[in-house]
Design a protein that fits this description.
The chain is mainly β. It is built from no helices and five strands. 4% of the residues are buried.
């Protein structure tokens, strides 16, 4: 779940689904993320996030905690 704050002060809450497209070495994954706005501005609307995000600590995949943060350029597309 992600909370988006708009430049108008309004908010949206987005619930995402993730579709793994390619499993790469060291646990990295290229995935497509899409979801639905479940609360606030654009409620009920679909959302997509094209782009690749990677873990800066891929060896964390080998631990019990796993990867907690991913990073990289992305764009939210509210359809």
């Amino acid at each position: 779940m992600e909370r988006v704050t708009w430049n108008t002060g309004e908010h949206s809450k987005v619930l995402y689904r993730r579709h793994n497209l390619v499993q790469r070495a060291a646990g990295e994954t290229v995935s497509l993320v899409d979801g639905t706005v479940v609360e606030g501005k654009f409620k009920g609307g679909p959302v997509g996030s094209p782009g690749v995000q990677v873990s800066l600590t891929p060896l964390s995949c080998l631990t019990g905690r796993g990867v907690e943060v991913i990073d990289g350029p992305t764009t939210l597309v509210f359809l």
